[in-house]
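Task 17 of the worksheet. Students: predict the tertiary structure of the chain below and write it out as structure tokens. Keep your answer in the requested format; marks are given for formatting as well as content.
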Amino acid sequence: MFYGANPWCGLKDFTMILGILSDTHGNLPRTEAALRALNDAGADHLIHCGDLGGEDVVTLLFEQQEAGTPVTAVVGNVDEWDAGLRVYAKKLGIPLPRIARIDLDGITAAVCHGHTPRDIEDLITHPDIHIVFTGHTHVPRDEQVDQTRILNPGALHRAAVPGYALFDTATHKWTRIAL
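Model answer:
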């Protein structure tokens, strides 16, 4: 059910700033602007919650990874129909699973696009999952459901207020930033 590797596994007392974006739908100007801002904010790890929308967005994520910032990305409902996109991403070392699991700074998180309600339900009730990073709705969300926090940065494309988010693993502070 879960995929993904954690280059930080085993490190304790290490604060990480996660940069979270979703639903870019191939919008390069907004994706580039968000990635610049996330880099400026000191993001240590990037998470893309799906609906990348094209190889150009994957290339931007690959460039971030090559520059030393780990990337975790998942497939969205728009991406599922583009087998070439998944092949391209895998070739660059950015697999696009339906669900990814990451363990960072004592937090176990799942990343999924959220277009399959059953995935969200299963992750919320999973005893080991503390946070679910999700997208799909194009609406920002920060909600606690039982023991699991659900965080959605909103969308960079087709959103009333396009934006992205930062998450501090030490303080658990979630900051949604309008683009």
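Marker's comment: Residues 28-40 form the longest helix (13 residues). The chain has one domain: 17-178.
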